[in-house]
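Sample 1 of the test manifest.
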Amino acid sequence: MDNLIIHGKEYSSRLLVGTGKYKSFTQTREAINASGSQIITIAVRRTNIGQNADEPNLLDQLPPSDFTLLPNTAGCFTADDSIRTLRLARELLDGHNLAKLEVLGDPDTLYPNVVETIKAAKILVKEGFHLMVYTSDDPIVAKQLEDIGCVAIMPLASLIGSGMGILNPWNLEIIINNTNVPVIVDAGVGTASDATIAMELGCDGVLMNTAIAAAENPILMASAMKKAVEAGRDAFLAGRMKKRTTYNASPSSPINNTISKNKFA
Amino acid sequence: MFFNMIQLIINGQIQHFESTLNVAQLLERMTLNNKRIAIEYNGQIVPRSKFKEQALVDGDQLEIVVAVGGG
């Protein structure tokens, strides 16, 4: 079975999805169901004081019994904030150690601050967290994060929420070829072909949120993404044909024994 | 002015209480006692099992968080 294996646990789906930007918890659940995802990200935020009585809880709709929850550190701009957030998340999820680390550099581009990310990763790994770490497509940083002990490396395709797809497949390839833990493209996927391209490059999985939630028909897009990731993975495993480097043809039908114009006497 | 009055900072907001109370009592007051939350108390995580034991005194800072949708 071609399963995704993260820190020893196997998953049949290579599509990971976020739970943000949806219209309702119901739509979130329907989209996740359509995507077939087993690993879903959640964020951790202060509870609203004074508005608690009947507020529905995300964890009731998306229980840890049905999914592998991946708490993130979205909105954290320092190592310290991300560390505090994941400690809270672990308590929230009854000691669950798997987490997504992201430390952002600025609020406009949401580009990762890799220096703070590395700093946080060192501390969090020592505290027993199994980190799936969001990072740039810098292969040296990716290697450092792997060496620290992160269980998955998650380089961006393009900026979070941009939908611009894979802007640098070359760097992604370097990372894929040099990393021994799963490489999961995270951020910037916009449509199905982006996910397929990521998988064709050899990625182990794709994580997306906006691509599905901001589609006109999120449920349909979620289903498309499921197929896209599967198609890309199969194409990768099938070993694609060689791409020509010069623009010339190679016929698919036999050259000989074609009929030709007859000269009847 | 009650001499026992304490000031807590909860999720960045100053709140006053007429005397010391423990975390479990605070959550009841805030109708959070049956919700899935996690608490950081003066920079440290307070496990659920310690809510009744953890007393709150003047000047304490708490972060009370929940899971929300996110990417």
